[in-house]
């Protein structure tokens, strides 16, 4: 008697939270190995304070293109998502790292948004490249349990899965637990070996998030509770700031040009080189102070100033 041909069971779909760093690249490759390229999507968040790799060589678009993965970009620099994200930055529920970075709340935000997308698109499994013990605030066992308790949905962490509780997807055999990994700690030797095996390039770890930079946060902290636009956030990276960023002075020609294009009052030295001052609020009472500050930061005596409004 002829045996009945078995219909292959349909593979699950996975959505990988994709920062572009080495861990998320490996998570994506591990999922592709198990589920096939067509069943794995990457979701990337464009955050107001940065946090993803962006150099040309390691560009996430190059990577997903090469690995034939569909990439979904969620832009949190405008609209409701920006407002929601800023609320989290202002009032994090789970503390901050060494600077203003509220990593647990930031992760929760991204996970929740990714889950909403997964639900909408009927994607079964949500995946992250988190590694147990790799980061002091957001990737400890305690952090994972806070994240898991708060989000009320499951996440698969393939790089450390064997050290963590089995997920329902592993129990249901949608995912083969034997093929998952048991990486933990800050050393990245195993990830680098895997990068060789998978022939993937990757950016150096860390960096990218302004909320981790002390100099930047010193300027952000006094105005954090004001209503900030994405442009205000970008301007904090430019120039010297005075009076809680009410006056910003360019440190070089490039910054002067940027400041001159901004809305507000611009104070420009006319007869000798010096920085352009921007008074974003348009408060005329700050013009004289701006002139003094420009002079203090110029090697040359400035007699004439041009005021642009
Ligand atoms: S460093 Fe922390 S706050 Fe910054 S993007 Fe990463 S998780 Fe978010």
What does this structure look like?
It is a single chain. With 309 residues, the chain is α/β, with parallel strands linked by helices. Helix content is 35%, strand content 12%. The protein contains eleven helices and nine strands. The chain has helices spanning 22-35, 60-66, 79-90, 103-120, 141-151, 168-171, 189-198, 214-220, 230-235, 253-260, 287-296, and strands spanning 14-17, 40-46, 70-75, 125-127, 240-242, 247-249, 265-269, 277-279, 305-308. Helix 1 packs across helix 7 and helix 4 (103-120) packs across helix 5. The mean pLDDT is 92. Bound molecules: iron/sulfur cluster.
Brief overview:
With 309 residues, the protein is of the alpha/beta class.
């Amino acid at each position: 008697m002829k045996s009945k041909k078995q219909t292959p069971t349909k593979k699950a779909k996975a959505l990988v939270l994709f920062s572009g760093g080495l861990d998320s690249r490996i998570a994506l490759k591990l999922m592709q190995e198990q589920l096939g390229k067509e069943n794995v999507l990457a979701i990337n968040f464009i955050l107001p304070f940065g946090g993803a790799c962006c150099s040309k060589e390691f560009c996430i678009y190059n990577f997903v293109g090469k690995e034939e993965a569909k990439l979904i970009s969620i832009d949190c620099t405008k609209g409701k998502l920006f407002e929601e994200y800023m609320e989290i930055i202002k009032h994090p529920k789970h503390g901050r790292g060494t600077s203003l970075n509220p990593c647990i709340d930031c992760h929760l935000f991204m996970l929740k948004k990714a889950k909403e997308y997964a639900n909408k698109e009927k994607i079964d499994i949500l995946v992250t490249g988190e590694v147990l013990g790799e980061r002091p605030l957001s990737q400890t066992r305690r952090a994972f349990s806070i994240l898991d308790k708060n989000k009320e949905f499951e996440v698969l962490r393939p790089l450390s899965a064997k050290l963590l509780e089995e997920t329902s997807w592993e129990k249901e055999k949608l995912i083969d637990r034997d093929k998952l990994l048991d990486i933990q700690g800050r050393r990245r030797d195993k990830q680098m070996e895997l990068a060789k095996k998978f022939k993937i390039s990757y950016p150096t770890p860390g960096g990218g998030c302004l909320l981790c930079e002390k100099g930047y946060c010193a300027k952000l902290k006094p105005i954090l509770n004001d209503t900030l636009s994405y442009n205000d956030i970008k301007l904090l990276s430019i120039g010297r700031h005075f009076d809680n960023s009410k006056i910003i002075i360019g440190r070089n020609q490039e910054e002067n040009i940027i400041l001159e294009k901004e809305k507000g009052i611009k104070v420009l030295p006319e007869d000798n080189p010096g920085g352009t001052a921007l008074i974003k609020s348009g408060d005329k009472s700050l013009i004289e102070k701006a002139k003094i500050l420009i002079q203090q930061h110029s090697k040359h005596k400035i007699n004439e100033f041009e005021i642009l409004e």
